[in-house]
Amino acid sequence: MRDLRTLTQLGLIREHRVSAQEKAVQAALKKVDVSDQALKSAQKTLTEFVTKLPTMIDALYLGCINQTVGKEAIEDARQKELGLLAKKGEYAKHEQDRQEELIQSQRELLAAKQQLHIEQRKYEGLQTLVKDEHKKARQMHERIQNKRLDEFASSQYACKDM
After folding, report:
1. How far is it, in rounded angstroms, from Cα 144 to Cα 155?
2. pLDDT of res. 47
3. What's this model's pTM, rounded to 2 decimal places?
4. Candidates 3.10.310.40, 2.102.10.10, 1.10.287.1700, 3.40.50.2000; correct CATH number of 2-130?
5. Would you state the pLDDT for residue 2?
6. Gap between the Cα atoms of 23 and 1, Å rounded
7. Domain boundaries in the chain?
8. Which residues of 113-132 are buried (b: 16+ CB within 10 A; e: fewer)?
9. What pLDDT digit, counting tens, does each position of 44-60 carry?
């Protein structure tokens, strides 16, 4: 009986661990969703910027075409173009960072799911042990009852013979 109580208490601990791990999996799923949305947003921003970039660069140099402009105006347009290209690089870096974040959150989700599976298996194994202990206790109780019944029947038979 003592083993059964101990196993029952361990079962409660295991159940709590499984519950905590399920919460960890849910949190990891939310993190994956957030990372995925951030990646999609970064990709959209980059795509829009890359689509508009040729037009913006053309607009920089449009004022210089068919006009006499100074070397400073051309250099200024060139610096603005380099700024736009740097901004494109920043958007690309941001997208790459979001991809890495998504990959990391997917790894965390996988690890959380694996740990949940381990905890569930341990809990199921403990439940099996509890069932086996209940079965043993029931068998022991039945043996004791059968032994008492046999003793009672023997005493009744002995009393009739006398």
Report:
1. 16
2. 94
3. 0.71
4. 1.10.287.1700
5. 67
6. 33
7. 2-130
8. eeebeebeeebeebeeebee
9. 999 999 999 998 888 88
